[in-house]
Design goal:
It comes from Roseibium aquae. GO terms for molecular function: phosphorelay response regulator activity; transcription cis-regulatory region binding. The chain has about 260 residues and is α/β, with parallel strands linked by helices. Helix content is about 45%, strand content about 15%. The chain has helices spanning about 10-20, 30-40, 45, 65-70, 85-95, 105-120, 150-165, 170-180, 190-205, 235-255, and strands at about 1-5, 25-30, 50-55, 75-80, 100, 125-130, 130-135, 140-145, 145, 210-215, 220.
Amino acid sequence: MFVIVDDREIVTAGYASAFEREGYAALELKPAELVDWLEIASPADLQAVEGFLLGVSPYRPAFPTQIKTRCPDAPVFALDDRSCLETTLQMFAAGADDVLRKPVHVREILARVGVYRRRVSQDDKGVASGDIEVFFDGRDPIVFKEVMELPRRERRILEYLVKNKGRRVTKSQIFNAVYGVMNEGVDECVVESHISKLRKKLRMRLGYDAIESTRYIGYMLKQPDRVVANAPNAELRSSTPAKTERVNIRAVALA
């Protein structure tokens, strides 16, 4: 989810619609509402934020520090109507991660978020979890060294799980990240359907179930018990040694 902050509804609504077309949820706020939202938002809502877009406002220089206090992992982008060296330097000094001049396509913003994620993770490529690598810039993930084409919702869920690798996340957290905290037109249970389809596709590619699900607790990416040399034939190989062992034991017994 992206948080778009601007006094002009035409700006927030325009970017929110553009993000939606790319499969990302958005929350539209006015500058006077941002600080209050940061204070009352739940940890789950804050964790769902992929980035902040800050339009021009007299309060804007104070926002990056306030945002980083509550959302230290979310990049902050300042959006300017025109280029101004003084304003750009002021926003960088205030803690903004980037300053962009409008109009800027949301795909460029997504690409910059991907660069930010890679820089934070100190990875020159994408962010990886075992045999799964995601990019956070609209590209499909690489799963077991091959690109896996996914519908945008499933891709976003996988990115969110990789982002939170090693941690269990709830259905509500995933829903907030993919559909947005203010979306009342979609039932939260849709997440279960998306994850079911995603699990099946990952299992076919990897040879093991990559998403661990615990009722009432949530979901988490998991690693295989052992390294799989050739995932598509994993089940066949794993069964062969067991059969051989049974034959050998029987042969010894007969002897």
